[in-house]
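Extended Data, record Asparagine synthetase [glutamine-hydrolyzing]
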Amino acid sequence: MCGILAVLGCADEASLQGKKRARVLELSRRLKHRGPDWSGLRQVGDCYLSHQRLAIIDPASGDQPLYNEDESVVVTVNGEIYNHENLRTHLSAAGHKFRTGSDCEVIAHLYEEHGEGFVDMLDGVFSFVLLDTRHGRFMAARDAIGVTPLYIGWGIDGSVWISSEMKALHDECEHFEIFPPGHLYSSKEGGFTRWYNPPWYDEEAVIPSVRYDPLALRKAFEKAVIKRLMTDVPFGVLLSGGLDSSLVAAVTVRHLAGTKAAKRWGTKLHSFCVGLEGSPDLKAAKEVADHLGTLHHEFHFTVQDGIDAIEDVIYHTETYDVTTIRASTPMFLMSRKIKSLGVKMVISGEGSDEIFGGYLYFHKAPNKEEFHRETCRKIKALHQYDCLRANKATSAWGLEARVPFLDKEFINEAMSIDPEWKMVRPDLGRIEKWVLRKAFDDEENPFLPKHILYRQKEQFSDGVGYSWIDGLKAHAASNVTDKMLSNAKFIFPHNTPTTKEAYYYRMIFERFFPQKPAILTVPGGPSVACSTAKAVEWDAQWSANLDPSGRAALGVHLASYHQSESESESGAQQQNKHAPATIAAGAKKPRTIKATTTPPGVVIEG
């Protein structure tokens, strides 16, 4: 992913003297981690479009900003346009001439041909700002789900600022906020318009009623993965050993041989995993990698390594959300290792849990209507959670993460299924994400072994090692006193932290981003095991156990809080004196449950 910064409409004395250009360059450098390969800046009158490039497609000639034939349309883009070759054919037939092989160049020509209404023609993930110099106006847009990050702000001089990350504009804007996913901003219209309007977007709309078709779902996902094999640089997959990442790896292995990437980089897929010594993810990922025959890279970190990186993680992810920071830290550490191997792009499994109700709290959904509405709420919030984590934790080291589960066509297929099929039904042998598992349960040509295909959900921050979260809590407790927490509502009146861990992250965040608009960009509210606030109402006991860890879904999560012997020895006890070896004081130990019936190959742990 690249980094973009646009400053639009700032005709003042400083601009005329060249000081504004110098300031835009200075602020754009704050995004250089996102695009270490090249920098570009175009000034047109009182407007500036800057770009920090991570070269994935056409590294030789695709530098930005990009232009149409007479340079009357200028565009700076962060993203990947997977259908760019088809669009090029259409545009070339209409007489358009291309300067580069960049997939993003089609945006300038589509605007010429179709005006601002072209955005839904793009199949990919993107954030862009487009300047129409002929008519003296601009537009900006963000992809459907918000896979790419984007912020918008307004200066006291009347200027509009748009940036991939908050750090490039928060010092200059009187007000700034998240640029909403699936929207475009038009200076012509003077505000936002939502361009992405799928049937499921309105959670109060009619509940889907399409019968589940496993083959259609499988084909849609395979197509989504194949699109993301478009690359001119070395790549791999993130493999935790859970269902989602394992399916990504399995489909990639199956289809890699026939791609241009394979001709350039070979058919041996690289896979990557991170965890504490002896963690569940490391063990599961190796098993999947051995089965698929990938060239597997296993990275270890200690609790102390993670704690030492927390400030960098908060600076780069621009959040104080507890769930996001817990999961971003291992990903941040792993991304640095991956980049050191010369890899510039990875494919990851984010989004599946939101689409299929994979989080363990979905076991308590009272009916299919509530189940569906919760998936709608979760998908629409992804840009503040898993999309933010996956993008910013990797982009911190100039690594791009692609997410096939969030493909527009795949989401349309998955969200049209009658939610009755998605619900957890132990009496029918259906565990969480059963429709996805069943779609890839091929007896004749199996994608994965049964016990992997039906392995229970393990949240990333848990799977890297249970002592990771326990160690974070202990470290926060050593830095935040009881008195500090008791006064939290006066110090942090908005999204008041209720735990020492949340208080600790908030202190760090506000040191980097002290402005009120920055604080408002982070979501809040009660949550258990990654639920929305609405879903907490499903179980009265949850209100007393509001923790984002999957282990908080008491009676549902099958693994014990107790660490394995190898994890205890090499993880918290040896590397961090603050990390407890057992369950935190006052917490309840979850009971182990068994499903009344289980699909073939399902392993019930405990």
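Summary. The CA atoms of residues 481 and 527 lie 24 Å apart.
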